[in-house]
TrEMBL record:
SUPFAM superfamilies: ClpP/crotonase (SSF52096). This is 3-hydroxyisobutyryl-CoA hydrolase. It comes from the Bacteria. It catalyses: 3-hydroxy-2-methylpropanoyl-CoA + H2O = 3-hydroxy-2-methylpropanoate + CoA + H(+). Its EC number is 3.1.2.4. Residues 14-334 form the Enoyl-CoA hydratase/isomerase domain. Keywords: Hydrolase. Signal peptide: none annotated. InterPro entries: ClpP/crotonase-like_dom_sf, ECH_dom, HIBYL-CoA-H. Pfam families: ECH_2.
Length: 352
């Protein structure tokens, strides 16, 4: 059977290749375990100076978690998915604090879990083909894998806009949001991999980076985005968007109204809370609480059913209207999990 993750040693480079091109390299629990084991082994290996993450095939780095598998498991109680998320979030934290240069090539499609294994990297590369997004509210879920941490720390309210509309952004936008660092032409990626095997990672990436790339369209819209998303309720944000004279704001409002009311309100609360947390680990702990609550409910499975399983694009959200989601409903998603707590922040504090 073909390996879902290819691990290579090339000179002084440890190269991780996500290898499910038929599924746009969607992550499985096995892949997370293999990446984790490789990073731990290479951490202690003096022969490895840097790590490179890429995806097999031409379509993208990673389309996120395998949501079909998650859907099937959720219908059976969700135990396998809960275990998968726990290990995935631990991997996200490990990547963020990896002591050696970790170069993530965010070429092509990079969604959800794909952002988790790349946007926390020390060196993040995008190309003219990059299409990056956190589409969770469109399937009755919320940004996870550290997405609330990343988006809540984006300039102004750009991250709030991306999270609530569940839209995708290009490479220039990703740099503007702080999700990426370097823009390299896709035609230079083979050269990048070869050069990293024998040269300094930072110098190699900088030598191939282009100082001239398309300006960020999203950053150009920052004025109305900051103004309209500067509120702490979804209803207020929608009101501002609908009252704006900017056509793009009306398009954003329409996109938001198509999403799960519960997911929207919990996502906004998650972003606002993450902004005040002290570390990525605290955000991941919070996301784990929220994710398990969605896994136990009906919104997530209904969203996947409508978008991926039956593909009728007609989700039956419950409740169907924003005003029917109360503050108490939202608060329940953030309640302590007791013995099921992920505990990443506590582990970080214990090590420091």
């Amino acid at each position: 059977m073909d390996s879902e993750t290819i691990l290579r040693r090339e000179g002084r480079l440890g190269h991780i290749i996500l290898n499910r091109p038929q599924a746009m390299n969607a992550l499985t629990h096995r892949m997370v375990a293999e990446i984790t084991a490789a990073l731990e082994a290479w951490r202690e290996d003096d022969g490895v100076a840097a790590v490179l993450l890429t995806g097999a095939g031409e379509r993208g780095l990673c389309a996120g978690g395998d949501i079909v598998a998650i859907y099937r498991d959720a219908l059976q109680g969700g135990k396998a998915t809960a275990a998968f998320w726990a290990d995935e979030y631990r991997l996200n934290a490990r990547i963020a604090r990896y002591p050696k240069p970790y170069v993530a090539v965010m070429d092509g499609v990079v969604l959800g879990g794909g952002v988790g294994v790349s946007a926390h990297a020390g060196i993040r590369v995008v190309t003219e083909r990059s299409k990056i997004g956190m589409p969770e509210t469109g399937i009755g879920f919320v940004p996870d894998v550290g997405g609330t941490w990343l988006l809540s720390h984006a300039p102004g309210e750009l991250g709030t806009h991306v999270a609530l509309t569940a839209g995708s952004i290009g490479g220039s936008d990703a740099i503007a949001l702080g999700l990426a660092d370097h823009f390299i032409s896709s035609s230079d990626l083979p050269v990048l991999a070869q050069a990293l095997a024998h040269g300094d990672a930072v110098e190699t990436v900088q030598s191939l980076s282009s100082n001239y790339f398309p300006p960020s369209g999203l950053a150009a819209e920052r004025s109305w985005i900051n103004e309209c998303y500067a509120f702490d309720t979804v209803e207020q944000i929608l009101g501002a968007l609908q009252a704006s004279p900017v056509p793009a704001a009306h398009e954003a409002a329409a996109a938001i109204l198509a999403k799960s009311p519960m997911a929207l309100k919990v996502a906004l609360a998650s972003l606002r809370r993450a902004r005040d947390l002290a570390s990525l680990e605290e955000a991941l702990d919070q996301e784990f609480r929220v994710s398990l609550r969605f896994l136990a409910g009906s919104e997530f499975t209904e969203g996947i059913r409508a978008q991926v399983i039956d593909k009728d694009r007609n989700p039956r959200w419950a409740p169907p209207l924003l005003h029917e989601v109360t503050a108490d409903d939202v608060e329940e998603y953030f309640a302590d999990l007791g013995p099921r707590e992920l505990g990443l922040a506590a582990q970080l504090h214990a090590r420091s």
